[in-house]
Write a structure and sequence with these properties.
It is a single chain. The protein is α+β, with helices and mostly antiparallel strands and 111 residues long. It is 15% helix and 42% strand. The strands form two sheets. The chain has a four-stranded mixed sheet, with helices on one face. Strand 1 and strand 2 form a beta hairpin. It is globular.
């Protein structure tokens, strides 16, 4: 879990505590936001209210390449879309499955 977010996606570790199965960390996910990661979660988690995580990036294709090379499943290859909002919202997106089965979206809104 930690390896995926810090090494593959390159999110910096802000602080860590505990050891082994009781370890945890805060990682910087950008824009002043943090994500807390725990090593001791159950093997299978029920699907909750969180549908997926979406991370803004400067290079969607590079994120997908890193995730694929690390052996994780890409569920939607990088592609350009226009979200039918007012005003229309062009974006480049891709999706993968993270280490805990979470759906992760990478997006770039200016290209």
């Amino acid at each position: 879990l930690m390896h995926f977010y810090t090494e593959i996606l390159g999110m910096p570790v802000v602080r860590t505590w505990g050891e082994g199965e009781n370890s945890a960390a805060m990682v910087d996910i950008g824009g002043g936001s943090m994500m807390e990661l725990f090593a001791n979660g159950p093997d299978e988690l029920p699907q909750g209210a969180l549908r997926h995580l979406a991370f803004a990036t400067d290079d969607v294709d590079a994120c997908v390449k890193a995730v694929r090379e690390a052996g994780y499943q890409i569920t939607i290859e990088p592609n350009d879309i226009v979200i039918a909002s007012n005003p229309p919202y062009p974006a480049r997106i891709a999706f993968c499955i993270g280490p805990c089965g979470e759906e992760i979206e990478f997006f770039k809104t200016e290209f």
